C-alpha cells in the first residue's frame, strides 16, 4: 500500500515473482513525493529531480518495466557549473575512465584557486584511503573542517552537493551518508557519476509504467483508495479497511502480506492503531524522524528563452534574498515546456515561509542578475510548489527503522528506512525491493 517509488518497486518485484499484487494509493496520481501534479491547467512535477548513474536499482527497475532510460533521461557528465562571471566555478568531467575523468576535470576547473584544487584532491585521496568509512559519524561541516577543505570549495561545491543529495544543511547533515553517496558516484566507475535528468514527468517515468507492469501480470492498481486501518486476523491475514471513491465508499479486504509504503508519519499512525499489537518501538523511530522541505519555483517565459545549458548551479544567500540553488531549463528536457525554468531550493524551510509571490519575484531577480538576462526579471507566470515533508533530516547517527515491523506478513518500505542512502529515489526503490524480497524469501 502506497503508490510512491518504494511501493511501486515492491509491487513490481512481487509481480515478477508471481504474486497477485494489489497496489493501493490514496492520491489520484502515483508517485508519492516524486509525482506529477495538475496546477493552473498545466502538468508539472512537484519537484525537480536529478538521478545519478550510480542508481543501479532504479535503472535496472526501469529496464524491467520497459522504460528506455536513453530516451527518458538526459545523460550529462558530472558537473558543477555556475553561470559565467557570477563568482562561481566551472567543473565538468570528461568522458574518460575513472579516476582520470575527475583528475582532468579538476585540472581544467575554472573559478578554483590552486589551494582549492589541492583541497579537493586531498578530500578524494583521504576518502579513498579511509574506504569512504568513518569510525564515528559527524556532521558534514565537521568532516570538511577535519579534512582541511577550503572555504571557497565548501561554498561552491561541498555545500551545494550536500544540500542536493541529503536535503539537509551541512551543519546538521550526516557525513557518513554523504560519503556513501560520493563513494558510489565519485568513487566508482565514470558512468556512475553521470547526472540523469528526467525528460518525462516523474509519475510517467516510473510509477505509471510500474502500474502497467503489475496489471499486465494479473494485479490491480487503485488510486484514490485510502487505507484507514490495519488488523491482524489470527496472525495469518491482514484486514485492510479502505475508503474512497475508487472503492465505492468503504471497503475491507484481506491479504497474507502487506508492504506498508506510505510516508513515515502515516505509517506510524497506522501501526500505532493496530489492535492488540505492540508497535511502540518502531513507531518511536518513525515519529522521531524530522522532516525537511524542498521548494521548486517554476517560472514561465517566452518560448525562445533558453539557457546556455540544461542546468546551472546558483550561489544562494538568504541575507541577499537569493534563494535559488539550481536552475533547470525544462525546455531542453521536454519540447512541450519551452521557456519554462525550474529553480530548486533544498532544505527550504526559511524560503517556504515567505509569501509565494515574494519568493518568486526574488528568484526572478536572482536569475536576471546571475545569468545576465534582464528579461528573466518578468516571468509570464510562476508557480511555487513546496513539498513540506519532502525528506527526513539526514542527521549524524540517525536511527532509521528497518523493514521488519515485528508483525508476521507486514513489512515497511520507504526512503526513510535503514540503508546507505539519504531520502532519494534510489533509496526508495532499494527499500521497496528489499521489502518485497523479504516476503518472497519466506515462501
Structural write-up:
This protein is of the alpha+beta class and 443 residues long. Helices cover 34% and strands 22% of the residues. It contains 15 helices and 19 strands. It has helices at residues 5-16, 56-64, 69-72, 100-108, 114-129, 140-146, 151-166, 175-185, 202-205, 207-216, 264-272, 280-288, 349-352, 356-370, 425-440; strands at residues 22-25, 36-39, 42-45, 51-52, 73-76, 79-81, 90-92, 195-198, 220-223, 226-233, 237-244, 249-255, 258-260, 291-300, 311-313, 326-329, 340-346, 381-392, 410-412. The strands form 7 sheets. Strands 15-16-17-14-18 form a 5-stranded antiparallel sheet. A 3-stranded antiparallel sheet has the order 4-8-5. The chain has a 3-stranded antiparallel sheet with strand order 10-11-12, with no helix packed on it. A hairpin with a 4-residue loop joins strand 11 and strand 12. Helix 11 (264-272) runs antiparallel to helix 12. The longest helix has 16 residues, at 114-129. It is globular, with a radius of gyration of 22 Å. The mean pLDDT is 95.
Low-confidence stretches: none
The total beta strand count reads: 19
Radius of gyration: 22 Å
Helix-residue proportion:
25-40%
**What is the percentage of strand-forming residues?**
15-25%
Average pLDDT confidence is 95
Terminal-residue CA separation: 20 Å
Count of alpha and pi helical runs:
15
- Major sheet summary line: 5 strands, antiparallel
Order of strands in the sheet with most strands: 15-16-17-14-18
The computed structural class is: alpha+beta
Q: What shape does the CA trace take?
A: globular
Amino acid at each position: 500500500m502506497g503508490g510512491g517509488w518504494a511501493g511501486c518497486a515492491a509491487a513490481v518485484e512481487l509481480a515478477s515473482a508471481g504474486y497477485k499484487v494489489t497496489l493501493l494509493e490514496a492520491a489520484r496520481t502515483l508517485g508519492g513525493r516524486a509525482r506529477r501534479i495538475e496546477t493552473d491547467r498545466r502538468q508539472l512535477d512537484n519537484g525537480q529531480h536529478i538521478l545519478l548513474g550510480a542508481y543501479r536499482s532504479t535503472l535496472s527497475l526501469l529496464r524491467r518495466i520497459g522504460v528506455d532510460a536513453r530516451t527518458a533521461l538526459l545523460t550529462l557528465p558530472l558537473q558543477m557549473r555556475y553561470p559565467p562571471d557570477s563568482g562561481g566555478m566551472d567543473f565538468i568531467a570528461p568522458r574518460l575512465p575513472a579516476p582520470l575523468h575527475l583528475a582532468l576535470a579538476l585540472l581544467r576547473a575554472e573559478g578554483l584557486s590552486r589551494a582549492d584544487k589541492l583541497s579537493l584532491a586531498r578530500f578524494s585521496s583521504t576518502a579513498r584511503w579511509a574506504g569512504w568509512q568513518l569510525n564515528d559519524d559527524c556532521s558534514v561541516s565537521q568532516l570538511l573542517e577535519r579534512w582541511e577543505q577550503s572555504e571557497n570549495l565548501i561554498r561552491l561545491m561541498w555545500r551545494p552537493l550536500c544540500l542536493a543529495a541529503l536535503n539537509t544543511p551541512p551543519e546538521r547533515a550526516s557525513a557518513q551518508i554523504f560519503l556513501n553517496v560520493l563513494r558510489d558516484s565519485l568513487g566508482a566507475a565514470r558512468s556512475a557519476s553521470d547526472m540523469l535528468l528526467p525528460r518525462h514527468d516523474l509519475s510517467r517515468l516510473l510509477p505509471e509504467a510500474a502500474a502497467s507492469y503489475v496489471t499486465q501480470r494479473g494485479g490491480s492498481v487503485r488510486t484514490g483508495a485510502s487505507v484507514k486501518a490495519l488488523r491482524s486476523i489470527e496472525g495469518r491475514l491482514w484486514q485492510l479497511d479502505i475508503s474512497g471513491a475508487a472503492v465505492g465508499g468503504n471497503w475491507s479486504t484481506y491479504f497474507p502480506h502487506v508492504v506498508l509504503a506510505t510516508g513515515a508519519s502515516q505509517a506510524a499512525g497506522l501501526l500505532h492503531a493496530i489492535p492488540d499489537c505492540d508497535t511502540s518501538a518502531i513507531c518511536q523511530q518513525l515519529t522521531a524522524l524530522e522532516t525537511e522541505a524542498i521548494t521548486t519555483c517554476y517560472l514561465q517565459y517566452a518560448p525562445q528563452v533558453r539557457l546556455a545549458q540544461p542546468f546551472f548551479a546558483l550561489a544562494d544567500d538568504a541575507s541577499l534574498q537569493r534563494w535559488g540553488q539550481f536552475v533547470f531549463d525544462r525546455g531542453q528536457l521536454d519540447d512541450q515546456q519551452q521557456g519554462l525554468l525550474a529553480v530548486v531550493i533544498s532544505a527550504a524551510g526559511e524560503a517556504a515561509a515567505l509569501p509565494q509571490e515574494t519568493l518568486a519575484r526574488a528568484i526572478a531577480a536572482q536569475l536576471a542578475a546571475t545569468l545576465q538576462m534582464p528579461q528573466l526579471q518578468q516571468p509570464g507566470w510562476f508557480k511555487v510548489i513546496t513539498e513540506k515533508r519532502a525528506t527526513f533530516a539526514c542527521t549524524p547517527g540517525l536511527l532509521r527503522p528497518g523493514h521488519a515491523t515485528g508483525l508476521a506478513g507486514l513489512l515497511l518500505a520507504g526512503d526513510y528506512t535503514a540503508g546507505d542512502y539519504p531520502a532519494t529515489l534510489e533509496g526508495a526503490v532499494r527499500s521497496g525491493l528489499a521489502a518485497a524480497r523479504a516476503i518472497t524469501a519466506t515462501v
